[in-house]
Protein 1
Amino acid sequence: QGAAIGGATGAGGEAPKLLMSQGRDGLLYPDAVLNDEQVAQHWFIKFARNKATLTDQIILKSEFHYYKALHSLGIETIAQDGLALEEATKPSLWMKRFDREISEHGVERFAVESIYSLAGVTVPGSYMNHLEVIQLLARLWIQAGQIDQVPALVSDYLRRDLLNKILGNSDNHGRNTSIIRGTNSFRLAPIYDLAPMVMDDEGVTRTTKWPKDLEVAGEVKWREVCNALKVIADPETLYEALREDAARLSALPDILTASGLPDTTMNHPSIALRNLEQRLKSWGLK
């Protein structure tokens, strides 16, 4: 840390991050230093935020376990191949970049755009409305001729917010969800920046919320949320899909315990893992 790296840009946020390229010689280089044909892999390396206190390190370690758990449930997230938590004096989380893919034809770069960018928001940390974000995404999908994919898009979006609520990821600003642009298509980027930020000593709160009548004192009225989306997708279909997702996600406590999630995270009062079945019932999802 403290490295001055030219070209290692584009990785914003509070936690120190590095974009690195692994050469075919096995060494690591600052991003954009090597020619494409010299690159074997592109890495996104993340360190503990703030002063790297014990809590900051637990948050980083928990993020690692969250990605592993999502993968085991078949939910698209950070690639498991190469995913590693290096627990040195200053722990680091190593992740393969999802905006790059290396094949025999060279390096393919994917156009990733955040929700902030899509909405024309230029001020970091700006508040957003989930309904407006979904409407924005649905319009894009329809314009691209993907109207038949809109219900699945909305269900995916709802599942992501349910995950945030279960896992205590309060850092849900418009940079932490993105789309990937194809030649003539759009898709949501894999889930990233998924960490128990409710544990952060600085008090990170949700900046993207449902309207006030749908999210009261931090509690989301999931059935009413589905009803509010009736102009975009069938509310009953959305609600049943969300209940199915909730049933699948109910395995998270067991998966994360077996994985080695820190007890501090598992038992945190603002994280729903400790009493997930009860919480899902109170949310009307069981």
Protein 2
Amino acid sequence: MDCNVIRYYEEIEHESDRLEKGTARLEGERTREILRQHLPAPPARILDAGGGPGAYASWLAGRSYEVHLLDVVPRHIEQAKERDKDGILKSAEVGDARTLDFETHSMDAVLLMGPLYHLPARSDRIAALEESLRVLKPGGVLICAAISRFASFMDGMKQGYLFNPEFARIVLKDPNEGRHENPDMDPRYFTTACFHRPEELAEEITDAGFDLVRTVGLEGPAWLLGHFDELWADEAKRKDLLTFLKLVETEPSLIGVSAHILTVAKAP
């Protein structure tokens, strides 16, 4: 794992409460919706590999799943254990999604909500996917997240960063190369990452041996809305927004506009 990624999450990004603020609340709500739709019924055994400080792991454990959390950042596991005051997580350990310490065919579902965009080398992403396939039971469910190839470009327009020379140097590489690098570690500009086109994500998943189920644009264009906090605070508008996003979530021409892409697949 790139040392800048570890440093970013250890020293800069406060991932423990990120999904409770701003447009990340939309990311969290939509992700939980997809998980409810596609995960097997509890008490299925789930591995959340690269699950950060356990936002989804703890939520799933609270729904009576047997959840094992793994993350490469020690701070995240410390935060997950602090969050897990009732001890409902089955395990929470520092580890790498490319080398899982779980038995073959031992999981009903695997979540890869971070590794596929923090492993810039395709070979490493395939290794993580193949390890997920190894530990999944036949017919088991994989749900994985990627960041859109154009996410930083769109965020730069929204936030007003686009004409900052430092940001421009970073983001001009993204559309062609898909490799996002922030050498000066400016906290506004994320960290080392791979940004996918939707078809590239699908190709990697099938190359690793999975059968595709569906790919969705998680936030659609809604993460670019102005006055998002005001809209989200209005229960009726929030409900309408989620309904609209569900209608267009698989529209090919809109998937890449989303900040995050979510793909569901199954082990043969």
Protein 3
Amino acid sequence: MPAFLTLRRPAPPRAMILTGATGGLGLALTGAFAAPGLHMLLAGRDPDRLAEAERIARAGGAIPELLTVPLTDPRAFAAAIADYDRRHPVDLLLLNAGVKTGNDQGEEPLDQTERVIAVNLTSAFHAVQAVLPGMRQRGRGQIALTSSMAALSPHADLLSYTATKAALRGYGAALRRNLRGSGVRVSVITPGFIDTPMTDRQIGPAPMMIPPDRAARIIRNGLARGRANITFPLLLCLLIRLENLLPKPLADLIDRHYRGTIIPDPDEKKARAGGEPFAR
């Protein structure tokens, strides 16, 4: 059998970094991955929820450290990650942080757009570059980038969010090819609707929404198998793929039934003052 069909599964991580650890999915991922002896760097900005993530990690036997450097300062964030990697060689970088902002007929305040790009995209580039040299030198490691079904079916009410998630999907696919043969695996996570506070802000249809604990298990199992693409729910993905084959006028007609509005982020003022929720 060809070698590429018999790739071994990656070993369980001994040290990992999780961004967006304070959101609904982030807390679920913390619980899903926490294991005895696992070093975990949990990144987030909400002190209470970060303390909850720490409690969950310790309950699973993990050894957590907390990081509160804002993702809107990507260089400082990357420096903190690189320092952690020197102390605890990172086997898994799981980039789960994300924010979204709504728009009205294409009008999205530029400062909000810049914030979404910084948190969702720029910080991911910096984080990857912070751990990649060590992973390549060791000849092992996993990088997981959280995209969204919005990358497959653009959301008219989520302009910058859709753009950043599509960019992450493309970046992950290109990075995977770039690292072929290095021992470093790259996975792109493409979830649909997950029942989290971020989704609660989206008023409108949310088909096939799943609870965060289930989403976390799917992600954990997919990464344990070394899958390049972890997309769920599969039925929603299939329907989106079929919609993309339709003539654009017909696809636009269907899209009108799924339009929604985004409730302003209650942490937006806090973010402008220097804090970030950084969670999904």
Protein 4
Amino acid sequence: MLYEGLYKDYTSVSALLQSSPRPKEHEIRVKIDGFQEKELYLGYYLQDKQYLLDTTFLGEDGYFTFKGEEITPGGLFLIVMPPDNQYFQLLIDPDNQRFTVHCKSPLNPTEGMEIKGSDDNELFYDYLAFLAAKRPEAVSLQEAIDNPETPEKKKQDLQEKLDALNKTVEDYQDELIEKHPKSLTAVVIQSNLPLDLPEFEGEGKEVEVKKWQYAKQHYFDNLNLTDPRLLRTPFLFQRLDHFVNKMTVQHPDSINQSLFYLLEKMKPSEETFKYYLIHFLNTYAKSQIVGFDAVYVFLAKTYYASGQAPWTDEEQLAKIIENANKLEPLLIGKVAPNIKMQTKDNKDIWLHEFQSPYTVLFFWDPDCGHCKKSMPEMIEFYNQFKGRGVEVFAVCTKLYDELEECWLTIEEKGMGIWFNTVDPYNRSKYKTIYDIKTTPQIYILNDKKEILSKRIGAEQLPEVMEQILKRGEHN
């Protein structure tokens, strides 16, 4: 599609912001010569997706007019042309919501495009035209440099020309940003400027580590997380996603630090803070990665329980906090809640009394299909690891009137090789304490009954247990 992904080339553009009062409505008029369709769409970016905001129809004056009594949130927007959904981009600023666009052709709508009433978009497209004019020369020079048949002496000359061309572009960028620092285009371009890394002393890996640390510390130097207009651009999400998932060690404590850093910086922009707090909470609520529920708990406790999410209704807020309170005692590193169970001969035993360097706490149900499938794998696992300080503390989830099913299944499936327990009258409330909504559920504990891993399948147990044994996490 036309100009798809062009934001990647935004390394500079700027524009003038009007000092007039903020408009109370928006009116964006678009005329496309030769366009045969009768409707046109206004879309916008959010995260890594594009959404439809409005639809309008061809007026008698030959214009498509997007009009409303409320201002449109600022950002990078799309004029989408059916039926092929080709589009071109427009910058919409909350302070300038009335302008006109005239395209000379639907095949290449930005070529010769006329914009009236929006200095921002005029400068935006002037910049894109400048880049387009320089790009062929840059591509040609780079191809010649990369050509193995090009003599080294000539490569040096070509590189000097390419460096000079890049300097011309950088000067253009710097001048625009300096003249129009508060415009949306300047903000967009500034946000995509590359980070200048200083020279670091040291050798090899030491230098690489210093570069990585500096890059992470200064990753958002050029991107203003407090500007709400950037919420509706594609690059904000890309940068945040890269920072959290690529530049942050994938451990809950490290992720929590990164999210706290980002959210605190976003706070001056209420809309951005709200959007990404909700986004991060939902992301880690749904995460299937073992231990990442700690991130959900951190966000819920830090922001929701402290009253920093006032948009959340009371019922939903209560659910979020309740979920966090349930999960917190079960986080990796916590001491597993102590529960009193019962053996087949009606003797009581507390989980914490069960002595073993490692304990696999295994909740199962005789009628559970997944449990039946997992049982041979559990037995194979136990036979493989029982001589290495690993014991299984199994809990059958049937109650008093169905207990016989537990003991029959244990006998039939050969499960008597490990320690089996029940709670006939649910006195321990283990289903609530351990948040047992489905079975099987598996926890791995050390000799202090600290949780080392959890919510893993029986097929994963050997690999996870092997890693734990290598690390020696029982003491």
